[in-house]
Amino acid sequence: MVLLTLVTGAPLMQQVRGMPAWNGGVKIIDVDIYVRSVFLKDGGDVQTIIGHGGQYSEVWRGVGVSIKISTRDYFGDNILQFEYSANDPVIYWDVSYINLSSKSRFLEEGFAATPTSLGCAPVVCRPGDYHCSNVYFEPDDNYAIRGCQINTWVIMEIGIRSG
Q1: Are the C-beta atoms of residues 78 and 100 closer than 8 Å to each other?
Q2: Which pTM was predicted?
Q3: What is the DSSP letter of 68?
Q4: Exposure check for the chain: N or C terminus, fewer CB within 10 A?
Q5: What is the residue range of 48's domain?
Q6: DSSP secondary structure of 6-65
Q7: Taking 90 as the threshold, does the pLDDT of residue 1 lie above it?
Q8: CATH assignment at residue 53
Q9: For residue 57, is it within any domain?
Q10: Does 163 map to a domain?
Q11: Number of domains composing the chain
Q12: Looking at residue 10, what is its pLDDT?
């Protein structure tokens, strides 16, 4: 099981200079995957290899952040993406299959991204659902964007149990 959480509380990684100090961030815990976070504004990226008991964390960094989630250390293809843009007072977010293989472990296991704010729609893709209607397939699939209060937590669980 993989948990990706937009969390409130103390900053987990230093925010970009000049950006507001939002009460949230991204946290992936107790997983066996690779993660790369890319921020369009600074062009930088952070790669963290996650093992059992490890974790990856970052505070919201602004507009155009893409967290690429992979089962290997190569990020050219077969990646699930959690993308967000912080535009106070709203956090806009989505999940993307744009670079995901139809044979991906993420598709086999399914996932759910559930916000804590009322009125903020979840993203749920059942195991084996490559045609999930809640995700991006193309760069202009704007119907998949969610907008929540900036202090919302979004808990992303990869591996949906049946029953």
Answers
A1: yes
A2: 0.78
A3: E
A4: C
A5: 2-158
A6: EE-SS-SSPPPTTS---S-EEEEES---EEEEEETTT--EEEEE--TT-EEEEE--SSSE
A7: no
A8: 2.60.110
A9: yes
A10: no
A11: 1
A12: 30
Average pLDDT over residues 7-31: 51
> What are the tokens at 137?
């397939």
Looking at residue 21, its pLDDT comes to 60
Residue 66 makes CB contacts below 8 A (sequence gap 6+) with 37, 38, 40, 81, 82, 83, 96
Q: Give me the chain's average pLDDT, please.
A: 74
Tell me how far apart the alpha carbons of residues 104 and 64 are, in angstroms, rounded to a whole number: 25
CA distance 51 to 9: 24
Q: Is residue 127 scored above 80 in pLDDT?
A: yes
pLDDT at 106: 87
**Is the pLDDT at 143 greater than 90, yes or no?**
no
CB neighbourhood size of 64 (10 A): 14
Whose structure tokens read 């559930």? 114
Q: Which residues in 97-116 are b (16+ Cβ under 10 Å) and which e?
A: beebeeebebbebbbbbebb
> 26 pairs with which residues across the strands?
6, 58
Give pLDDT tens digits for 48-97: 655 555 567 777 788 888 888 888 777 778 888 989 998 989 999 999 98
- Our measurement of the distance from residue 162's CA atom to the centroid of its chain's CA atoms, rounded to an integer in Å, reads 22
- Domain contains 104: yes
